[in-house]
Amino acid sequence: MTPTDARSSVAEDQAREYRHALGRFPTGVAFVAARAPDGEAAGLLINSFTSVSLSPPMVLWCLGLKASSRPVFARATSFAVSILSQDQKSLLNDLSRPLEQRLNGVPIRDGWGGAPVIENAAAVFECSVATVTLAGDHEVYLGHVEHFSRGDNAPLAYLAGQYGRVQIAA
Ligand SMILES: Cc1cc2nc3c(=O)[nH]c(=O)nc-3n(C[C@H](O)[C@H](O)[C@H](O)COP(=O)(O)O)c2cc1C
Q1: In degrees, to the nearest 5, what angle opens at C-alpha 108 toward C-alphas 162 and 28?
Q2: Class assignment of domain 28-154?
Q3: pTM for the complete prediction?
Q4: Best mutation site among 40, 46, 93 for ligand 1, i.e. most ligand atoms within 8 A of its Cβ?
Q5: pLDDT in tens, 38-52
Q6: Whose Cα sits closest to atom 26 in ligand 1?
Q7: Residue-wise pLDDT tens digits, 100-122
Q8: Domains in the chain: boundaries
């Protein structure tokens, strides 16, 4: 192993350890989608969704600079965040397909500004884009919540690369 190899494997070990540390934070799973002015729609699975402000209601999520859906988000003025429910676990495979087929057969409707919304999600936040800020290898999308809805179905949980259900401690 050359000194350069050794350095890069230390960096890789650290990156893996960093990802594992981040994986200690349980989240939900959402599908965020947008529609460009020419009608092209795109979206991706995310777990970076978070609430920012209650009044006015604002949320954020982060988009990787290499994501294939980025050109559509760059042209859109709105996005919709569909929080997936436990009974939508079977949609995860579909929503991970290559962009061109990702929404094929997935039950969606047009939300605020035409952004695709997944039917029967645990909750939906339809937003206008407030700001887009470059942060390292991601962009932070901050949005004003223009419309929201909530279902009765339990949300799907995500922890350390695995999907499951939330069990409330007694
Ligand atoms: C549970 C989960 C959470 C994810 N969270 C994010 C996220 O917050 N931001 C992001 O840009 N990509 C996230 N990804 C990766 C994207 O869904 C997608 O795979 C990646 O952007 C590559 O997309 P592409 O094939 O369209 O280029 C997540 C993937 C999974 C499975």
Answers
A1: 25
A2: mainly beta
A3: 0.94
A4: 46
A5: 999 999 999 999 999
A6: 68
A7: 999 999 999 999 999 999 999 99
A8: 28-154
